[in-house]
Amino acid sequence: MARTLITAPATAKRGEVIELRTLIAHPMETGFRPGADGLLLPRNLITRFSCRYNDELVFSADLHAAMAANPYIAFFTTATESGTLSFRWEGDHGFSQTETVAISVS
Amino acid sequence: MNTALQRRELLQFGLAAGGLLLVRPVRATSFEMQSAIADYASGAPVKPGKVKFDIPPLVENGNGVPITISVDSPMTAAEHVTGIAVFNERNPQRDVVRFTLGPRAGRAVVSTRIRLATSQQLVAVARLSDGTFWSQGVDVLVTLAACLE
After folding, report:
1. Which residue of A33, A64, A74 is in closest CB contact with B93?
2. Model's pTM, two decimal places?
3. Do B148 and A30 touch (CB under 8 A)?
4. Could you tell me the sign of the dihedral formed by the alpha carbons of B49, B50, B56, B59, in that order?
5. For B2-142, CATH number?
6. HEC states along chain A?
7. Is residue B7 predicted with pLDDT exceeding 80?
8. Where along chain B do its domains lie?
9. Which among B80, B141, B81 is positioned nearest to B116, based on CA atoms?
């Protein structure tokens, strides 16, 4: 399991626009870089990130090799109701990880 | 007299040909980026404007360059941004990242960190719910390049 860092407000007012910041520890190996033995290191990328708010897709991203290592993505969403925010990263070699954060909306 | 003229012509020709050789690779990559953008816009015209691309103009380390893209949009159900994409000119691949947004985003602002292999031009393209595409290009100078992208 890769380490993740998610910054999301625990509480929000209904209709408030909230910022969600996410980071995951991942090398994002491009496949264009030679290793110590001179051979190209195999590609190992996170290719997709998605955020669901109570199982409804609110944001997604398709990542390519030009994303920095430990991909950081910050975006906004509107707080509509109490529930969970789930963040999912998917990548090469069957990599997938999901993290959830609870939010209470008043 | 005659030989001198020929030599002058030859020199001029040589300079012109040299100039063409120098210019061509730049145009080729630029064209590649243009076709990647056209592919994202599926042929629709991409107009400059509405998009604000924040990136330091002088990048000291190409391994992690912070970027922020904001699009001027009310983000209502009727009028919102449906996608934002970033393209580069001289990394091994033209695509950097493609975001998909919806009316629930509230604010069309996205931040991330990217790699830059060398000094080059970057373009951010926004897709709006009415089917129009808007873009902004920026030129960046990179002093320490990312390891091959």
Report:
1. A64
2. 0.84
3. yes
4. negative
5. 2.60.40.2470
6. CCCEEEECCCEECCCCEEEEEEEECCCCECCCCECCCCCECCCECEEEEEEEECCEEEEEEEECCCECCCCEEEEEEECCCCEEEEEEEEEHHHCEEEEEEEEEEC
7. no
8. 2-142
9. B141
**Structural domain count, chain A:** 1
Residue in chain B closest to A77 (alpha carbons) equals B105
User: What are the tokens at A87?
Assistant: 């963040």
DSSP per residue over chain B, as a string? -HHHHHHHHHHHHHHHHHHHHHHHHHHHHHHHHHHHHHHHTTT--EEE-SEEEE--SEES-TTSEEEEEEE-----SSS-EEEEEEEESSSSSSEEEEEE--GGGSS-EEEEEE--SSSEEEEEEEEETTS-EEEEEEEEEESS--TT-
**Percentage of chain B surpassing pLDDT 70?**
79
Tell if the CB–CB gap between B96 and A78 is shorter than 8 Å. no
Residues of chain A with Cβ-Cβ distance to B114 below 8 Å are 66-68
- Residues 81..100 of A with a Cβ closer than 8 Å to B: which? none
At A23-66, the pLDDT tens digits run 999 999 999 988 889 899 999 999 999 999 999 999 999 999 99
The residue behind tokens 């031009």 is: B121
What is the interface pTM, i.e. ipTM, of the complex? 0.92
Q: Which domain holds residue A15?
A: 4-105
Q: CATH number for the domain including A91? A: 2.60.40.10
